Every structure is written in structure tokens, then in C-alpha cells.
């Protein structure tokens, strides 16, 4: 039997971005480490064909975004092997394994889309630096003026035969988000935004048609917020373009598949009123496939002229869907309750077979028993979550110290998969003797639009009582020891942990990771400002106050906190800036509350460096051991 160590967690590797060749013969994927030791993250490209998996390249580089040529003979990908941090486009010819650089764009390549024409690739890339830019850099004349010289990804065309890159004069100064060509060749569906920033850009999306052979462009109008993943499919009335976006009018809302019929220009929400949430949309030749977050599990469906057809249901999650040209074969990322994520492939109706084995080192570990939990909220709404028991224990051996870990988002969810990560995770705590409750309260993904929209302007309200109800049930069932309760979370989960200790003294310890403490300050300084306004309900520029966001901000209740709190935060976090943690730290210090405040240099919203991830894991257990064990 193998002991679960922090090193086993952070030294693992995981597959990402599976890309199934149009002919269905080969799958390429990115293999990435869970942590990085240096300044750069070294990733690898692997290829699985008829035989064993093999690495595509041998260089030390960040390699990403594998995509196939239409004839399945060439694999394109991005790599920064020539200059770290500056990705360029490369291609691999499958016939002889030759790897060739095809761009040397001085601004780097953001994305790429091979077209049906074997000589053309669409590039998304910023403008190359000018002589004036070089002078400014040399003279350190680097004052940043808001609204000026902001980065934009522009649509460019690469002619592989000549190596020439051209930039069509289209879309004015807009930032190009994604491109998708009509199956079989033809015009491009192009999504753009007014800017690339996360606060303003997602609310300014538009959809365009662009004929790259004639240069003709047509503006098809505005799209819902955060529109992405364009896909084509034919209907009886001609071609349709679909995309994923947030359901209007709010920014905190469930996603939907929107369908624009090009012949009539009629736009429809194809997933309205469903009790599940579309998470991915992927184009095939005559249809589009949709991955639905469906409670703790996943449903795969097809959208075509006939409507929405359920194809298969799967335990846990399916991510990174890739479809062969005909739509008869898919590749996805999925795992199990006690198996790490791997690449699987098979027909959309199933079954899927595993074709990679990236975490064999976990096979000898006895994980805590994981089981779905169904219960009802105080108002009778059906809820779900997961319960993970201490390794080797049964519920009958309770009560156990219980740590409730709230997911982030809040538009995220717990699914029935292996719960083992660098951040506070169930299996890491279960290995130390804890029972762990993973709730899916209102505001999350997997139960439709209305379920997700409930939290808008009401953060910490119904979602909090949903969590409490689940804890009460576990106490009543004899699983949880009411005198040894802890609460933890990262991002929005960190907000909920900070909120919890200001509302009750039932918890003996809390962990607030990259958590929100003041919604008004976050809306003013975080990179997703308007999204935070939707959650908090207001912002500080609307008169003298008081404001609705004050009533749902944990800092407003800091004088009530008596629970010991561990605060963890990345120093360079732009999503939830460090000031949120400083505010809570200063308040707890002022009121004499026992706490630790840990800042991780060079880290953003997620902790990436190996030593820092190890510290998070060890510190998490040490903190809860200190307060929840006798």
C-alpha cells in the first residue's frame, strides 16, 4: 500500500486539450505537470495512433493547442521553444515526423485554425512591435495610458506555401476571440469583442461572417455575454451558427447554446429551461455535440436540424471534447472516483475506452470512500454533493471531524470524479482522517439557468443555507462530529469560508484561499469587475451608500468572527487581488482573532510553483489538525 504524500499530488502530470484527427485515426494531447519548478511550465505533445502513445517532440518548451489539418496528415501546435514566453506556430508531418516552425511573428501567436484549403491557416495574434515600440522599451518610456495601445488579437492569414502572413482589413480595432470555418470549406464564423480585458470585453461581443477568399465581411450583430465556442450545423432552412454564452440579462447566470439561423436571422436559445447546463460545444460535419454538466455527472447530446438528442450519460466529468469530422468518434478527458483523468475515445453513444495512463503511481493508494449525497434545502429544493469518508473507514464508524470545502465560481460544480488537487481537496484531507463534505449549492453549474442565477446580488444567502442544511444532515446521520467542524474554499469558496465564520461560531477552524472579503472593492479592482457587481449587487460609485454589497461582504461581519482562520493568497492575483486578504487579516488582527496570513510571491489566482503547492497542502492539514483533533 502506498501512502498519499504531498509530493505525489504536486509531481503528477495530467493530459489536456485532446485533438482527434478528422479521419478518427489519431489523437494528440498535451501532457502538463501539476506544478512548475522554474519560471516556465514545460509541457509535452503526445500522439496516440493505432499503436502505443509516443511523444511528438523532445524540446523543453510550453507546447499547446494541437490542431489537425483537414486531411489529417499534418498536426499544428504552438510552442515557445525558440524564445520562452513567445509562442510560434509549428507543424508536424505525420508521414515522416518532421517538425517545422512556420511563423516567427514577433508578437507571438495567440491561437490558430487550419482551414480546408491545405495552404491556409488562420492566426490570431497581436501587432508586431514597431520601431517606436523598440525606442520606448530602450528608453524605458513605458507609461501605460488606459485605452491606448491595448493588446488586440487580430485575424491574420498564413500562406504555408510562401510563409507570408497577411492581415485583412476587417473588424476595425476589435479583439478577435475565436474563428470556426463552415464544414467542408467556406466562410468563417468570427467572434469579436471591443477589447481583450476580462471586465469590459465579454459584454461587447459580436458575431461576423468573413469570406477569406473575397474579403467580404458581414456583421451578424451582438451576442450574449462571454460568447465562445462557435459551431456550424446545417438545417432545413440553410446553415446555422451556434455558440455558448451566458443567459441574459445577468452576468451571473447559466450558460446556454444560442442558435442563429443565417437564412432568417432568427436567434434562439436551444437549451432554455433544461435542468442541466451546456459546458462545451463542439462542431462536427453535420451537427454539433454538446457536453452538459448534469448534477454530479455529464450528459452528451447532439444538436442538428432535428433538435437536441441525448446520446449518452457518464459518471463524473467529460472535458476537452474533440470530434472526428464525421461525428462518429470523439476524444475526451475523463476519469473516475478513484482514477485520475485520462484521455478516452469512442463513439458519442459510448462506450468510451481509456487510451492513456498518466498517473500509474496512484494505483497503490487507498482513497477515502466517495459517495454521492442527495438532500433537500430548507425550502425543499433538491440538492446534491459528495461525501468523502476517511480512508479505510465507513459511515458507521463516525462521527468524524468534518471539513466542508466549497467550490469556486460560483458557477462551477463538484462532479463525481477523483477529488485530489493541490488546493484544499477531499482526498488529501480524507487521508488524514477527516470526513469531507463537497456541496453543490445554488449559484453553481449543473442544474440549469435558474439555479445558477439565484445567487446574483445575493451572494452568501441561499447558497449558505444550502450548505448548512447539508452539514446538519451529516451531523444528524452520525457522520460529522458537531464539535469538530471546519470550512474551507478557494476563490468563491474562500468567500464562503470567510462568510461562514462571520455568520456562526459552529466552525472550529476555517481556511480562506484567495477569497473575496469585500464585493465593492473587488468590483473596483478585480479583473472581472462587472461580474463581481452581479454577485455583490452594487458598486461604490453609485452614491454615498450604504450599498447592497456591504450586506453580503464578509468584512462587514468581521467583528463577529471568533473562529481561527488560515488565509492563503497569491501576491500577484489579479482575479481576486491581494488587498482582499490584507483587509481580512487587518480586521482579524484588530479584533484579536487567532489567524495565519500567508502570501505566495509570484503567484496569481492559482498557485503554480511546486514549493508553494507543497506548502498549501502541508499547511492545510496542519491547520485543521491543530483545531479539529483533540
UniProtKB/TrEMBL annotation:
TM stretches of this protein: none
Peptidase S9 prolyl oligopeptidase catalytic domain span: 426-628
Signal peptide: none
Keywords, comma-separated and alphabetical: Hydrolase, Protease, Serine protease
Pfam families: PD40, Peptidase_S9
Protein name, per record: S9 family peptidase
UniProt source species: Actinoplanes subglobosus
Amino acid at each position: 500500500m502506498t501512502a498519499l504524500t504531498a509530493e505525489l499530488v504536486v509531481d503528477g502530470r495530467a493530459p489536456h486539450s485532446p485533438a482527434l484527427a478528422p479521419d478518427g485515426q489519431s489523437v494528440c494531447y498535451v501532457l502538463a505537470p501539476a506544478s512548475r519548478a522554474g519560471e516556465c511550465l514545460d509541457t509535452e505533445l503526445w500522439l496516440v495512433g493505432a499503436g502505443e502513445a509516443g511523444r511528438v517532440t523532445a524540446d523543453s518548451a510550453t507546447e499547446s493547442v494541437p490542431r489537425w489539418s483537414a486531411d489529417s496528415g499534418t498536426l499544428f501546435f504552438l510552442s515557445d521553444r525558440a524564445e520562452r514566453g513567445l509562442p510560434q506556430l509549428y507543424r508536424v508531418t505525420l508521414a515522416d515526423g518532421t517538425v517545422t516552425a512556420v511563423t516567427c511573428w514577433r508578437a507571438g501567436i495567440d491561437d490558430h485554425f487550419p482551414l480546408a484549403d491545405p495552404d491556409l491557416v488562420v492566426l490570431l495574434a497581436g501587432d508586431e512591435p514597431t520601431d517606436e515600440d523598440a525606442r520606448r522599451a530602450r528608453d524605458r518610456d513605458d507609461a501605460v495610458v488606459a485605452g491606448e495601445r491595448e493588446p488586440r488579437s487580430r485575424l491574420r492569414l498564413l500562406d504555408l506555401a510562401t510563409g507570408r502572413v497577411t492581415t485583412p482589413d476587417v473588424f476595425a480595432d476589435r479583439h478577435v476571440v475565436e474563428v470556426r470555418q463552415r464544414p467542408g470549406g467556406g466562410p468563417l464564423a468570427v467572434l469579436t469583442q471591443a477589447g481583450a480585458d476580462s471586465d469590459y470585453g465579454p459584454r461587447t461581443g459580436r458575431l461576423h461572417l468573413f469570406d477569406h477568399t473575397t474579403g467580404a465581411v458581414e456583421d451578424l450583430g451582438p451576442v450574449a455575454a462571454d460568447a465562445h465556442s462557435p459551431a456550424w450545423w446545417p438545417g432545413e432552412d440553410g446553415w446555422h451558427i451556434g455558440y455558448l454564452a451566458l443567459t441574459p440579462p445577468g452576468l451571473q447566470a447559466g450558460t446556454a447554446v444560442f442558435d442563429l439561423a443565417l437564412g432568417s436571422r432568427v436567434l434562439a436559445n436551444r437549451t432554455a429551461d433544461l435542468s442541466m447546463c451546456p459546458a462545451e460545444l463542439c462542431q462536427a460535419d453535420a451537427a454539433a455535440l454538446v457536453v452538459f454538466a448534469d448534477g454530479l455527472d455529464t450528459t452528451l447530446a447532439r444538436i442538428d436540424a432535428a433538435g437536441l438528442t441525448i446520446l449518452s450519460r457518464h459518471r463524473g466529468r467529460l472535458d476537452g471534447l474533440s470530434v472526428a469530422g464525421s461525428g462518429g468518434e470523439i476524444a475526451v478527458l475523463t476519469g473516475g472516483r478513484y482514477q485520475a483523468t485520462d484521455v478516452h475515445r469512442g463513439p458519442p453513444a459510448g462506450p468510451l475506452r481509456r487510451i492513456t495512463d498518466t498517473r500509474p503511481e496512484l494505483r497503490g493508494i487507498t482513497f477515502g470512500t466517495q459517495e454521492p449525497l442527495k438532500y433537500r434545502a430548507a425550502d425543499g429544493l433538491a440538492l446534491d454533493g459528495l461525501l468523502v469518508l476517511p480512508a479505510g473507514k465507513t459511515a458507521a464508524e463516525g462521527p468524524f471531524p468534518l471539513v466542508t470545502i466549497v467550490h469556486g465560481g460560483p458557477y462551477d460544480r463538484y462532479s463525481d470524479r477523483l477529488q485530489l488537487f493541490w488546493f484544499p481537496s477531499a482526498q488529501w484531507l480524507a487521508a488524514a482522517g477527516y470526513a469531507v463534505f463537497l456541496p453543490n449549492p445554488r449559484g453553481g453549474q449543473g442544474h440549469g439557468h435558474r439555479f445558477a442565477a439565484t445567487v446574483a446580488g445575493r451572494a452568501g444567502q441561499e447558497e449558505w443555507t444550502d450548505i448548512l442544511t447539508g452539514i446538519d444532515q451529516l451531523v444528524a446521520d452520525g457522520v460529522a462530529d458537531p464539535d469538530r467542524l471546519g470550512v474551507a474554499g478557494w476563490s468563491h469558496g474562500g468567500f464562503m469560508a470567510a462568510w461562514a465564520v462571520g455568520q456562526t461560531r459552529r466552525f472550529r477552524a476555517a481556511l480562506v484561499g484567495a477569497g473575496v472579503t469585500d464585493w465593492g472593492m473587488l468590483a473596483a479592482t478585480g479583473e472581472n469587475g462587472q461580474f463581481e457587481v452581479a454577485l455583490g449587487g452594487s458598486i461604490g460609485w453609485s452614491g454615498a451608500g450604504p450599498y447592497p454589497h456591504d450586506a453580503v461582504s464578509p468584512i462587514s461581519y468581521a467583528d463577529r468572527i471568533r473562529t481561527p482562520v488560515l488565509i492563503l493568497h497569491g501576491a500577484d492575483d489579479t482575479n481576486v487581488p491581494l488587498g482582499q486578504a490584507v483587509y481580512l487579516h487587518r480586521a482579524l488582527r484588530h479584533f484579536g482573532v487567532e489567524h495565519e496570513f500567508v502570501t505566495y510571491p509570484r503567484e496569481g489566482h492559482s498557485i503554480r510553483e511546486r514549493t508553494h503547492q507543497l506548502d498549501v497542502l502541508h499547511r492545510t492539514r496542519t491547520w485543521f489538525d491543530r483545531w479539529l483533533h483533540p
